[in-house]
């Protein structure tokens, strides 16, 4: 960076017309388009805006973003979409399955037709499109809510551990180590029925769907927060030595101000990245748990449960396995690539590795 | 040589006008413990960064604190502003003992005691706009200036020579010198009486240094600010500070007003420092003595006995190892000129006249 000869005299006279910092430090290239506008109005470009400019130039990220938005819209408007098709997620079309050969759908490719766009579920006769759109709702909701929960917990714990140090840091760090060392999947499989029984309110012995989801979300985030906490702690350890922290302490700032006003704004980038990468990871975990039978149970729509069922039919009806499998792959891939893109955009100096 | 007698027991900082001092530091000690052990930690020693120093700063006065790296200058500054907890001694500001006060109970002292930092790149929060940075101290201390926070912030930007329209910009859009000006504006926001400037220009380009020093000088005159000016550049200190204290390994070895210290220094360490000031001498006709110190500063974990400078001093004798020389005023020296040496020697003008940094020729 060039040390700009100052157009400003030390006596306090200023007001030179030209923009003294038209070329910015690390992102000089991105300013080219904006120089003309900054000549008239002097408005600083926030780091977030610069990151968005960089993200927009990344084609892979933009494709992933579009896909993600499509998935989210599909989940939100699931009732509208299924109304268009005419079949709900648990309305059985008995005419489309053939009871003579074990309730497999009529026609090729799992019964894809004008009536059933993605085919029909063998055995039940449910419309696969409706089940996938509603299953997407479950997957995205579980992924997003558990990522949100684990991020909030992780950020608070990480901030506290990094900033206060001493025995607080020791205690919190050891808890993080324990959580990270736990065999997550085994633990959740063992624990889920126990928790469910403890909270079970359904008199008929059935399973309350909302309770199942809540337990699932809590279980996933109970193990995911430690990653974020460790990341944030490391960042805080380096940030708290910066002089602006001392500066705010001299101004009379308390720890609440320093943690949430001074340090947190500098942590948005790693937090956002951690969140963006936690969503697909949680979706995969949720699918895995449902596949293993401790997540969402049929007939409630869910991708993991769908895959679990489909694996039973896959020799005769591979389309049934193929469609939700590929969609899950595309969703997780898009979210991961978007997370990577966000990371690159927020921290242009970091190497792609 | 050693015919000068010591005047008994006049401790530094305890001058007759001590009550007028804005900042008063007495026997300040900052020791950093060295701990060993994993679970049960025990203290095995201490880094004696600052080991019993005393000085005072009067209102409107600028005291320079010089010394080589690692001698405890910055630690002193941080202990005075209470960023570090002193392990001994007292710090009195405006008559109030702030040595061990909690942040909340010293809001008024905080407002009057501000700091300018060394590194303009790490002292400004990169995610805050210039406006937020300058307004934060006012908001934290519940100060509502006439015309609102924004107007006051823009006023301050103008005072430090920046364009008030840059209010909404982020620090990364400014150069080092401009950032340092923002830091100065932030320190001024609370209208302090004393500013601790911790090497405020050493991270800057030489051409910018003069501008920033001149700005500080203008502000000192305009607002009657007192400064504790920490630096290792003797020329800058000479230009800026009326009184200068020289530190070595956690102790003040000599303190005097500017003219006396630069023209008639007494402590051998001061001699050495002054003779190291680079000099523009195209003719090579300089016949001044060059003192070259050998070796490094000893470890502050285990400082030498007696006089701390004796390991590198060319005058050292047995007494230097056994007895620590007190910081005292010597007979025949100017008022307020104190040195801590068993064999002080008045040298006439060791250093050639150093031209103070040229006034910024920005116009």
Automatic annotation (TrEMBL), chain A:
Transmembrane segments: 60-81, 140-166, 178-199, 211-232, 267-292, 320-339
Keyword Membrane: yes
Protein name, UniProt field: Peptide/nickel transport system permease protein
GO cellular component terms listed in the entry, alphabetical order: plasma membrane
CDD domains assigned: TM_PBP2
Family under the similarity heading: Belongs to the binding-protein-dependent transport system permease family.
Classification via Pfam families: BPD_transp_1, OppC_N
Superkingdom, natural source: Bacteria
Residue stretches making up the ABC transmembrane type-1 domain: 136-339
Polar residues composition bias: residue spans: 1-14
GO biological process, one term: transmembrane transport
Region feature (Disordered): 1-38
Keywords linked to the UniProt accession: Cell membrane, Membrane, Transmembrane, Transmembrane helix, Transport
UniProt topology in membrane: Multi-pass membrane protein
Location within or outside the cell: Cell membrane
Biased composition, class Low complexity, residue ranges: 21-38
Stored InterPro entries: BP-dependent_transpt_permease, MetI-like, MetI-like_sf, OppC_N
SUPFAM superfamilies in UniProt: MetI-like
From TrEMBL, chain B:
Molecular function in Gene Ontology: ATP binding; ATP hydrolysis activity
Gene Ontology terms: biological process: peptide transport; transmembrane transport
Keyword Chloroplast carried by entry: no
A Pfam family matched in the record: ABC_tran
Domain ABC transporter: 34-274
Keywords, comma-separated and alphabetical: ATP-binding, Nucleotide-binding, Transport
Annotated PANTHER family: D,D-DIPEPTIDE TRANSPORT ATP-BINDING PROTEIN DDPF-RELATED, TRANSPORT ATP-BINDING PROTEIN
Entry's family note: Belongs to the ABC transporter superfamily.
Protein name from the UniProt record: Oligopeptide/dipeptide ABC transporter, ATP-binding protein, C-terminal domain-containing protein
Organism for this UniProt entry: Streptacidiphilus jiangxiensis
């Amino acid at each position: 960076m060039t040390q700009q000869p100052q157009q400003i005299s030390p006596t306090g006279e200023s007001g030179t017309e030209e923009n003294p910092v038209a070329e910015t430090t690390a992102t000089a290239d991105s300013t080219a388009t904006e120089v003309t506008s900054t000549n008239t109005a002097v408005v600083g470009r926030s780091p977030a805006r610069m990151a968005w400019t960089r993200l927009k130039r990344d084609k892979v990220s933009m494709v992933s973003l579009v896909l993600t938005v499509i998935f989210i819209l599909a989940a939100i408007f699931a009732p509208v979409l299924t109304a268009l098709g005419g079949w709900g997620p648990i309305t059985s079309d008995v005419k489309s399955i053939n009871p003579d050969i074990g309730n497999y759908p009529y026609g090729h490719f799992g019964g894809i037709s004008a009536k059933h766009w993605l085919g029909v579920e063998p055995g039940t006769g449910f419309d696969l499109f409706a089940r996938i759109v509603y299953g997407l709702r479950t997957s995205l909701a579980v992924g997003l809510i558990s990522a949100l929960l684990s991020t909030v917990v992780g950020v608070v714990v990480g901030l506290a551990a990094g900033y206060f140090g001493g025995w607080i840091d020791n205690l919190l760090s050891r808890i993080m180590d324990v959580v990270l060392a736990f065999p997550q999947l085994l633990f959740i499989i063992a624990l889920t029925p126990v928790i469910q029984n403890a909270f079970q309110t359904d008199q008929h012995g059935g399973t309350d769907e909302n309770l199942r989801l809540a337990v699932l979300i809590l279980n996933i985030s109970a193990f995911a927060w430690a990653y974020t906490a460790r990341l944030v702690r490391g960042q805080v350890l380096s940030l708290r030595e910066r002089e602006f922290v001392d500066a705010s302490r001299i101004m009379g700032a308390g720890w609440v101000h320093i943690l949430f006003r001074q340090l947190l704004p500098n942590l948005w980038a790693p937090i956002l990245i951690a969140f963006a990468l936690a969503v697909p990871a949680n979706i995969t975990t949720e699918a895995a748990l449902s596949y293993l039978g401790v997540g969402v149970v049929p007939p409630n729509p869910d991708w993991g449960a769908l895959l679990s069922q489909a694996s039973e039919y896959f020799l005769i009806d591979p389309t049934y396995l193929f469609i939700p499998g590929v969609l899950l792959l595309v969703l997780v891939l898009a979210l991961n690539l978007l997370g990577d893109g966000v990371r690159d955009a927020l921290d242009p100096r970091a190497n792609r590795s | 040589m050693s015919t000068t007698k010591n005047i008994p027991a006049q401790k530094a900082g305890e001058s007759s006008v001590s009550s007028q001092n804005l900042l008063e530091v007495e026997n300040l000690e900052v020791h950093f413990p060295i701990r060993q052990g994993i679970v049960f930690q025990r203290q095995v020693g201490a880094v004696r960064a600052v080991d019993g120093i005393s000085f005072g700063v009067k209102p409107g006065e600028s005291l320079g604190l010089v010394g080589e790296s690692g001698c405890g200058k910055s630690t002193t500054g941080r202990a005075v502003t209470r960023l570090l907890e002193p392990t001994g001694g007292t710090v009195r500001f405006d008559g109030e003992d702030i040595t061990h006060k909690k942040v909340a109970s010293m809001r008024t002292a905080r407002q009057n005691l501000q700091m300018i930092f060394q590194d303009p790149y790490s002292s400004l929060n990169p995610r805050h706009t210039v406006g937020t940075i300058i307004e934060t101290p006012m908001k934290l201390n519940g100060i509502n200036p006439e015309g609102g926070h924004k107007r006051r912030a823009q006023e301050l930007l103008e005072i430090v020579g920046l364009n008030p329209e840059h209010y909404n910009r982020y620090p990364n859009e400014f150069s080092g010198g401009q950032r340092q000006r923002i830091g100065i504006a932030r320190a001024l926001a609370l209208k302090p009486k004393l500013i601790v400037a911790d090497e405020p220009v050493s991270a800057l380009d030489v051409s910018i240094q003069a501008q920033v020093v001149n700005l500080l000088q203008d502000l000192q005159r305009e607002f009657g600010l007192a400064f504790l000016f920490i630096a290792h550049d003797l020329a800058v200190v000479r230009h800026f500070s009326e009184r200068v204290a020289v530190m070595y390994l956690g102790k003040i070895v000599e303190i005097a007003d500017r003219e006396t210290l630069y023209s008639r220094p007494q402590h051998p360490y001061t001699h050495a420092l002054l003779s190291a000031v680079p000099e523009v001498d195209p003719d090579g006709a300089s016949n001044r003595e060059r003192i070259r110190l050998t070796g490094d500063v000893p470890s502050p974990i285990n400082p030498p006995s007696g006089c701390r400078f004796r390991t590198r001093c060319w005058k050292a004798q047995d007494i230097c190892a056994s007895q620590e020389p007190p910081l005292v005023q010597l007979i025949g020296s100017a008022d307020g000129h104190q040195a801590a040496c068993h064999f002080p020697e008045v040298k006439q003008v060791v250093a050639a006249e150093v031209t103070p940094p040229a006034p910024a020729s920005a116009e």
